[in-house]
Amino acid sequence: MAGFHHGVHIALLGALLLAGALRTEASEIVVPPGSGMTVLIKQGTPTAAGRPCYIIVARRQVTMLLVKPGEKVSIVFSCPDPERYFVLEIQKNIDCMSGLCPLGEVRLQPPTSELPRLNRTFIWDVKAHKSVGLELQFPLPRLRQIAPGEKCQDGTSYSISGRIDATVVQIGTFCSNGTVSRIKTQEGVKVALHLPWFLSRNTSGFNITNRSSSIKRLCIIESVFEGEGSATLMSANYPEAFPEDELMTWQFVIPAHLRASVSFLNFSVSNCERKEERVEYYIPGSTTNPEVFKLGDKQPGNMAGNFNLSLQGCDQDAQSPGILRLQFQVLVQHPQNESNKTYVIDLSQERSMSLTIEPRHLKHGRKFVPGCFVCLESRTCSTNVTLTAGSKHTISFLCDDLTRLWVNAEKTISCLDPRYCYKRSYSLRVPGYILQLPVELRDFSWKLLVPKDQLSLVIVPAQKLQQHTQERVCNTSYSYLVGSSTGSHDFGYFCLGGSIERILVKENSSVTLRTFTSSFLQDVSRQSLTVSFIPNLKEEGIFTVTPDTTSKVYLRTPNWDRGMPALSSVSWNISVPREQEAYLTFYRERSGVVCQSGRAYMIIQEQQSQAEEIFSLEDDILPKPRCYHHSFWVNISNCSPASSKQLNLLFWVTLTPRTLDLPVIIIAVVGGGVVLLTVLLLIICLLKKKKKQLNKGPVVGIYNGHINTQMPRQPRKFPKGRADNDSHVYAVIDDCMVYGHLLQEGSNGSFLRPEVDTYRPFQGPMGDCPPSPPPIGSRAPTTKLSNDEALPCAPPESESEPYTFSHPHPHDGSQRDTDIPLLETQQPEKPAAE
Ligand SMILES: *[C@@H]1O[C@H](CO)[C@@H](O)[C@H](O)[C@H]1NC(C)=O
Ligand SMILES: *[C@@H]1O[C@H](CO)[C@@H](O)[C@H](O)[C@H]1NC(C)=O
Ligand SMILES: *[C@@H]1O[C@H](CO)[C@@H](O)[C@H](O)[C@H]1NC(C)=O
Ligand SMILES: *[C@@H]1O[C@H](CO)[C@@H](O)[C@H](O)[C@H]1NC(C)=O
Ligand SMILES: *[C@@H]1O[C@H](CO)[C@@H](O)[C@H](O)[C@H]1NC(C)=O
Ligand SMILES: *[C@@H]1O[C@H](CO)[C@@H](O)[C@H](O)[C@H]1NC(C)=O
Ligand SMILES: *[C@@H]1O[C@H](CO)[C@@H](O)[C@H](O)[C@H]1NC(C)=O
Ligand SMILES: *[C@@H]1O[C@H](CO)[C@@H](O)[C@H](O)[C@H]1NC(C)=O
Ligand SMILES: *[C@@H]1O[C@H](CO)[C@@H](O)[C@H](O)[C@H]1NC(C)=O
Ligand SMILES: *[C@@H]1O[C@H](CO)[C@@H](O)[C@H](O)[C@H]1NC(C)=O
Ligand SMILES: *[C@@H]1O[C@H](CO)[C@@H](O)[C@H](O)[C@H]1NC(C)=O
Ligand SMILES: *[C@@H]1O[C@H](CO)[C@@H](O)[C@H](O)[C@H]1NC(C)=O
């Protein structure tokens, strides 16, 4: 450091010399020995026209004067305006190669006020080892690079050059009004500070420090932006060729709330023999750093956060190297579109909800994507933000294109105490504070957790749902994915506008509202599902389907792509209105399933008659299209299939007006009169009521999905909170038991938070139980003939049972372990006559 303080002593002698009419001042220039400094006075270029002017040294007239360390000269000019003719160069060599390397704050020595009033250039020439990094620091004012030929307003400029071996490389010329705060080089650096003659100044405006490590490139130029602004920067030697196979880096420090865009103003590339000329960016938020661009590419814009940019040369063709050069601009401004809007997401009342705003998983390969950030109140911005329950969050966005983000939310509704949740229902709706975000909702997922083997769930949509199939795709803006809470399997996607009245699911499930288009927002008012806790089911799921007359209802087995889960069972309760008949059609002739263990079968049961058909899905041809006059069950139970022979069944139901069999309608037509109709309706109602009474005890039959140890057929009341130990046992649940509590008592109050009490009892025919499955082990004959006199729900255990395939008698050896009382009373029931 001391070396910089060995100043040149130049005294203004104050002597007035008369030379004709002109007055000049004499100056004494003293360069201390060992200062490593020289002072040179020489003619400016171009030399001024007109009468010549001389430096008068010891009465000699010269046009150039070099003062070396240890020398002392006294000079005077022969003209009154020497600044027009002469310039002054003060050069200091700093040698870091041979030990002492005096660095630190760079002083202007001598102060300009003590120098002849000539344009001055202070030159600091630092030589260092290749392994030593040198850093020039420019505290305020920072520097602004100018193109060759450009001038600085105040006449003050810095020319900075580096060195590659013996070759000088021009890094750039800078004015003191810009963003460049540091310039790092290795192997040495030369700074020339040009000051016009009229300016007096006593500081150099920069520091030099040495870093023990090499920067491994020609230079690094750091720009710091305090606010909005721009910087134009150039490759070394611009507009001449960038040195062959070199690397130069620009670093940019950008305030968090601003955005930076790079544009290339002027460039050319050389003829590369090996490697490729390119620019590489490190951009916060980019997952593919470094982002590599060709010089001809469109460069990144709207980058948030600090970034850096490197120019990499190539091995050039020696014959015709061409010229690599680059002039570019960095523009820093406020984010243009999303402005400074803030959004409040109040999760303070939530207990178990989280919301993540994260980058959409778009595939862009190596294509560049600018940073896209979510900022929390505190202005900490990140690409992936998760907001948790229990507090209120204020967020804003720093993102050029908000469609690159999406929101995923998850809320858990769990039942801890069955007695408590039993009567509860919850509305599943996406909260408004998510819909108001400028970012698209992707998934809103409700995890519905119930105590194992104690409770199940019924999901009731405000409007009937359609199952997504290839044959009838869900083309709505959103769908519900109903699946297991662990994601191990799913029941499929369901969207509005179908025939599914409700879905009963056995176990912990998740319902995910997934959006597909942004028009979701327009349809959002129609979204609503209600979920209620019901007694435990034995089947994986039961779908209640009420087709309308206008369209086919396509239905398919759960977990379509991967195959229905092993040893699970699903039922569809398909309503057939009185005046209609239903056609059930299977898509394929055979199911194609191959069982490793257990058996896969299907039961179709008319609910009124209890007529049951049983098909082995392994062996039998699936039923031909068949007509059903009454509501019926379809039950499909899976075995443990061979992995490549999974069970997937697709079927559809169509309704057509019933052709015969409708004396009521005929009579109505004949009678014609309104009165008669009214009477008829009355009769029907009475009949219906009577039937209801007879049917008092409609039951929903439910059995264990893992059916290998089935199953007595006795109805059994569902014992609340019963122990699990008989969970393998077939249970029959009274319909009133299942839903009665929901009908009778409103669900005011809830174990989480009362939300909406919208449970709507299903009004259609729902009295019968799904068919009970045959034992899996049994290789009994399959197709079943029905007996219209069969008892509903729980067929008799008697040997006289007319089915050729009967459910195992509880005294079968294999069923010894059952503890179900055999003689539990059963409601006798006759099918109501039409
Ligand atoms: C001194 O610098 C000014 C610009 O700052 C320039 O116009 C002038 O020609 C220079 N003088 C000489 C002698 O080079
Ligand atoms: C330059 O050095 C001086 C003295 O060492 C120090 O006070 C100043 O903060 C330094 N400036 C920078 C930008 O490092
Ligand atoms: C600083 O730069 C800006 C734009 O680059 C210019 O408008 C302004 O006049 C400059 N100020 C000085 C003192 O050079
Ligand atoms: C440099 O000049 C400023 C005023 O321009 C003055 O305050 C300061 O003391 C001077 N510093 C030195 C080291 O001469
Ligand atoms: C800078 O140079 C000095 C003198 O050569 C040396 O003592 C010091 O360790 C160097 N600093 C670094 C960071 O290399
Ligand atoms: C690019 O630089 C070249 C050489 O300096 C110049 O001739 C040309 O006009 C520049 N082009 C633009 C668009 O500035
Ligand atoms: C550029 O930025 C990346 C990431 O911040 C950093 O790892 C790398 O060292 C930087 N390179 C230079 C030369 O600044
Ligand atoms: C948002 O920007 C407007 C003007 O662009 C400004 O008036 C307002 O104060 C800003 N709001 C915040 C919260 O920064
Ligand atoms: C965002 O963060 C969440 C939680 O840490 C993580 O699950 C998710 O994968 C992240 N998303 C991306 C795109 O990195
Ligand atoms: C910003 O908004 C303007 C008009 O409002 C639009 O033309 C432009 O495409 C938007 N830019 C981005 C990146 O969204
Ligand atoms: C459902 O989730 C609850 C709570 O996490 C857990 O206790 C229960 O065992 C789960 N049920 C099943 C069948 O895994
Ligand atoms: C969506 O599907 C329904 C029938 O499934 C059809 O009527 C409607 O035109 C479809 N809409 C679009 C946009 O494809």
Give a topology summary.
Layout: H1 2-5, E1 9-19, E2 22-30, E3 37-43, E4 55-57, E5 60-62, E6 65-67, E7 72-77, E8 86-95, E9 104-107, E10 119-127, E11 133-137, E12 142-146, E13 157-164, E14 167-178, E15 180-186, E16 188-195, E17 203-211, E18 219-224, E19 229-234, E20 247-253, E21 259-270, E22 272-274, E23 278-282, E24 291-293, E25 303-304, E26 307-312, E27 315-316, E28 322-333, E29 343-346, E30 353-359, E31 372-376, E32 381-382, E33 385-388, E34 392-399, E35 405-414, H2 418-421, E36 425-428, H3 432-435, E37 440-449, E38 455-461, E39 465-467, E40 478-484, E41 490-496, E42 500-505, E43 509-515, H4 520-523, E44 529-535, E45 541-545, E46 553-556, E47 569-574, E48 580-586, E49 595-597, E50 601-606, E51 612-616, E52 626-628, E53 632-637, E54 640-641, E55 650-657, H5 663-671, H6 674-694, E56 699-702, E57 731-734, H7 735-744
Parallel strand pairs: 8-10, 18-20, 35-37, 45-47
Antiparallel strand pairs: 1-2, 2-7, 3-6, 3-8, 4-5, 4-7, 9-17, 10-16, 11-15, 11-17, 12-14, 13-14, 13-16, 15-18, 19-28, 20-26, 21-25, 21-28, 22-27, 23-24, 23-26, 29-34, 30-33, 30-35, 31-32, 31-34, 36-44, 37-43, 38-42, 38-44, 39-41, 40-41, 40-43, 42-45, 46-55, 47-53, 48-52, 48-55, 49-54, 50-51, ...
The protein binds 2-acetamido-2-deoxy-beta-D-glucopyranose (NAG) (12 copies).
